[in-house]
Design a protein that fits this description.
The protein is an alpha/beta fold and 380 residues long. The strands form 3 sheets. The protein has a 7-stranded mixed beta sheet with strand order 8-9-12-13-14-15-16, with helices on one face. A 5-stranded antiparallel beta sheet has the order 2-3-4-6-5. A hairpin with a 2-residue loop joins β3 and β4.
Length: 380
């Protein structure tokens, strides 16, 4: 069967068209736009990079502003704790007004019925390298992830993207789009953009999910970047990344982050049944460190664990760590109920565990990091 030409970019480009056409004004510009993990715009104003995200409207959730179709959120990409200025807020409000005036153009009607419980599509795409501003980019070798962690906060956003692309509703973890022309597209893009740091993948997918053993899209992308001055940073849950150490070691600098939310594999089986065992992830992290890569850890969401053991196993092999709690607890609380672990679902658990982890990593000289701006981690 020939690959599918995905229509999603065309749909999102049409929605954002007046905003994209207005880019290049003296007081602001569009850095990037995307539709794969919900809809988003990256804008630059007053020297700051602003991320504007559009999710399916949900009046029970707080947001910056609402349109008829979307919850709209906005923050500074590389300084999320600093509030937007009045001028920046006004820009976001104007962007939301434009989207509100055009959202009636989005596809409507019933979604097609799913023919199968799982779906793997081979697709072609127009773009791969997504600018984030300040010399940083991201790219997704795949769309969707069959590791399928049930708590993943991209679930709703990814389904919105599938809906706009005319795809049936399928359970998260049971679909993946394989970008079979990824390397070809990227090879042209790296000629057009200045070198910088390239993250794989920020939200939508794991670059080393099971499909990679068949398609090798991530490896192909790395091989393209290895012929340039771009710096890759790969975030994964999968020890399968060790298959590509030979390519990663070709870069003067390359980064690898491992997501390990607990040191207890029994807990992992309850919350991440499709992911690799935590012992294998710790071992792979150590091997990446020993190979000379810039390594970091992600403990997100914090699941029940022995915090001291977690620090002891991770700290010797990382330059920095991101720590965060479980979000969207209303949706994810049944996971804790099913596992009889409701005591680990409240703020007391998260506050206590975060404090223990922070103290432990600080003792080992490992700083905590939001991982939005990776330039300091990838330095010498």
């Amino acid at each position: 069967m020939p690959p599918v030409v995905r229509t999603l970019d065309q749909v999102v480009r049409n929605l954002f068209e007046p905003i994209l056409r207005g880019s290049g004004r003296r007081d602001w510009k569009v850095v990037n736009w995307d539709g794969e993990q919900g809809l988003s715009l990256v804008l630059e104003r007053d020297g700051d990079i602003i991320l504007v995200e559009f999710e399916e409207r949900n009046d029970s959730k707080d947001c910056f502003v609402r349109t008829g179709r979307f919850n709209v959120n906005a923050r500074l990409t590389f300084d999320r704790d600093r509030p937007l200025s009045e001028r920046q807020r006004h820009l976001v409000e104007k962007v939301a007004e434009v989207v509100a005036s055009r959202e009636h153009r989005l596809p409507e009607g019933a979604r097609p019925d799913a023919e199968r419980r799982a779906d793997l599509r081979e697709i072609t795409v127009e773009r791969m390298l997504m600018p984030e501003g300040d010399g940083q980019y991201y790219l997704n070798p795949y769309a969707g992830c069959t590791i399928g962690c049930p708590f993943c906060y991209v679930v709703g956003r990814a389904d919105l993207s599938r809906q706009l692309d005319g795809q049936p509703e399928i359970e998260w973890g049971r679909y993946v789009d394989v970008k079979i022309n990824a390397a070809e597209v990227l090879a042209e893009e790296v000629k057009q953009h200045p070198p910088g740091i390239v993250r794989m993948s920020p939200i939508l997918t794991d670059p080393y999910q099971p499909a990679e053993s068949r398609y090798h899209i991530t490896r192909q992308v790395l091989e393209v970047l290895a012929e340039t001055d771009f710096i890759p940073v790969v975030l994964t849950r999968a020890p399968r990344i060790l298959d590509d150490l030979d390519v990663l070691k070709r870069f003067p600098v390359a980064g690898v982050g491992f997501s390990i939310p607990t040191d207890d594999d029994a807990i992992r089986k309850l919350f991440e049944p499709g992911a690799d065992p935590v012992d294998e992830r710790f071992e792979a992290l150590a091997k990446c460190h020993e190979a000379g890569l810039q390594t970091f850890g992600v403990v997100q969401p914090m699941l029940p664990m022995d915090a001291d053991a977690m620090v002891a196993r991770m700290a010797p092999y990382i330059r920095a760590v991101r720590i965060d709690r479980m979000h969207e607890m209303e949706r994810n609380h049944p996971l804790y109920q099913k596992a009889s672990l409701e005591s680990a679902a409240g703020p007391d658990f998260f506050d206590r565990t975060e404090r223990q982890l922070l103290e432990g990593f600080q003792t080992h000289g490992v700083p905590t990091h939001e991982l939005d701006d990776l330039s300091d981690i990838m330095g010498p």
